[in-house]
Specification:
about 30% helix; about 400 residues; TIM Barrel; 14 strands; ten-stranded mixed beta sheet; 13 helices
């Protein structure tokens, strides 16, 4: 029986500084979440008619021919060894330009066109557009996150801030209570700055801004406030990729690390699963090229923690809905082949995905293996090591 594995649950609803739930494979394209309050070391699942424990999985995951740490597709990011690293936003403040960027961004609220939907509402007067967000930021949670890419997590976690509301609203969103329903607490920009500083104080390696597009002006203002109080660590712009070039240019010289999704390559799929956003593929491709222009290739510090650069995520979906082969081919033809790409296996059926038969199941092992094989076929050399380790794990299980 084929299985597809969920290597991590990247959601504030299931993952925090000490996640209380772990995702384990239980069968063909099916995932279950198991509470850490149970005796997880004795919990096992049956696959291929044999007992297969979590300990077995971790042992194979780490020590097979390509592991998390010794992947055959290497992490070809440059290390910053000479001189003291300075964040992009601090450099812009030193140049005397950050305050003007904040002012420029805030002016957009009066005729909101922060995202490609360009609603044109006056959020300063309480009007709300497609994303339904108010003018003040709404935060669902903030904490060290250990479910992100290893170069973001490091040893003390990625300082993740989950913003409520969303400009895309995918029907399979695992964070739908936050993005669709807007659950969270409305705060001031000064409070957001304090949360950034708290995450830095407890040792987080970066400030990871999840779903930031509709609150970009608040983020810029909070960053400047926090900078004046000692904020130093990199800003990670963790976005769906559905971004306007004009807005990204305001962020030029402020964001250190761009972490965009590339969800689909076909307009009909984007329209069907993301609230009519048929322009998503073309808009996002242009946005990613601009992000690459701004921050370049991924650069790591001496402890292997990301400092600057582009990291692209692509979620493998059932029945090739995401257009994965088209995606890796586009990356290979448009960007350096050493661009960091995370081909993710953790799709799970959430929210309204149950109403769409073609995506109402998890992915199969073969669907994930095909995705990695396509990436190698088109010459991508900097795949996320976790993704490669999962591929090697399944290859080993099939040839064992």
């Amino acid at each position: 029986m084929d299985m597809a594995v969920n290597t991590f649950c990247s959601s504030p609803l299931t993952t925090g500084p000490r996640p209380d739930r772990a995702c384990l494979p239980v069968g063909r394209g099916v995932f279950t979440r198991v509470s850490h309050r149970s005796n997880i070391n004795t919990l096992s699942i049956r696959a291929l008619n044999m007992e297969f424990t979590r300990r077995d999985f971790i042992k194979n995951f780490l020590f097979l021919g390509g592991s998390l740490f010794f992947s055959p597709i290497s992490l070809n990011a440059s290390e910053k060894k000479d001189g003291q690293w300075i964040s992009a936003y601090k450099k812009l403040e030193i140049e005397g330009k950050l305050a003007e960027r904040v002012k420029q961004a805030y002016a957009i609220f009066e005729n909101c066109q922060l995202c490609p939907r360009k609603c044109g509402v006056n959020r300063q007067k309480g009007e709300r557009g497609f994303c339904r967000a108010p003018v003040k930021p709404v935060i669902f949670s903030y904490h060290p996150h250990f479910g992100e890419e290893m170069s973001l997590v490091g040893s003390k976690g990625s300082g993740t801030i989950f913003f409520s509301h969303c400009n895309l609203r995918c029907i399979f969103c695992q964070n739908w209570p936050i993005s669709h329903e807007g659950r969270g607490k409305e705060i001031q920009d000064e409070d957001l700055a304090d949360r950034m500083l708290h995450l830095q104080k407890i040792g987080c390696h970066n400030i990871n801004l999840v779903t930031p597009t509709h609150v970009m002006p608040n983020i810029l203002n909070a960053t400047r406030i926090a900078l004046k109080k000692g904020l130093l660590i990199p800003l990670v712009y963790n976005t769906s990729g559905y971004e306007r070039l004009e807005i990204l240019k305001i962020l030029d010289g402020i964001v250190d690390i761009y972490l965009p999704d590339m969800k689909y390559m076909d307009t009909d799929k984007a329209a069907k699963y993301s609230a009519g956003a048929s322009d998503y593929p073309e808009v996002t491709k242009k946005a990613i090229v601009e992000m690459q222009r701004q921050v370049g290739m991924l650069k790591l510090g001496h402890q292997g923690v990301a400092l600057r650069g582009l990291m692209i995520r692509h979620l493998v979906m059932p029945n090739r809905v995401a257009g994965t082969e088209k995606f890796v081919k586009w990356v290979a033809e448009t960007l350096p082949k050493s661009t960091y790409v995370n081909i993710m296996a953790q799709y799970r059926v959430e929210y309204r995905a149950y109403d769409y038969p073609e995506i109402a199941r998890g992915i199969t092992t073969q669907e994930f293996l095909d995705a990695i094989n396509w990436a190698e076929k088109y010459g991508l050399t900097n795949l996320d090591p976790q993704s490669v380790a999962v591929r090697n794990f399944y290859f080993h299980r099939r040839t064992d």
